[in-house]
Amino acid sequence: MQNILENLTIGAFAKAAGVNVETIRFYQRKNLLPEPDKPYGGIRRYGESDVARVQFIKSAQMLGFSLDEISELLKLEDGTRCIEASKLAERKLGDVRAKLAVLLRMEAVLTQLVDSCHTRKGNVSCPLIASLQEQKGVAI
Asked: Where is the HTH merR-type domain (predicted)?
């Protein structure tokens, strides 16, 4: 019996991969996913390796890799160039850590502003709104 994941239409392929058809077409336009040949008078068919490739792309996106970075990772997908893959991951980790530092500063400023709003007394201006209206804005 033929493997059910070896003769998929684009709709069935998208469903098996957990994405929509436009995502498949978008990945093809970005050269992340090959477009199979279309037999004369027929329709393109996709297989299990195509499903695995889309799942690889989605997993990499969940880790924050851009489509350009994913393209680089796909060139290394045979798994034999771990040092190159590691360098890409190290750069991504640096980006994530930098973003995390910014988010932590944002959290501290917002916490301070929320606390100021909760502790204000009387008919004074809202500290959050006042700080956002200042010329310099809120320093993070």
From this structure: 7-76
pTM here is 0.76
What is the rounded CA–CA span in Å between residue 51 and residue 17? 5
- The DSSP string of 45-65 is -B-HHHHHHHHHHHHHHHTT-
**CB burial class (10 A; 0-12, 13-18, 19+) of residue 50?**
buried
Cα-to-chain-centroid distance, residue 44: 27
Domain that holds residue 60: 4-75
CATH number at residue 48: 1.10.1660.10
Q: Mind listing the pLDDT tens digit for each residue in 74-87? A: 998 777 888 999 99
Q: What is the pLDDT of residues 99-135, one digit of tens each?
A: 999 999 999 999 988 988 888 776 767 878 888 887 6
The separation between CA 136 and the C-alpha centre of its own chain, rounded to angstroms, equals 32
DSSP 8-state class, residue 19: S
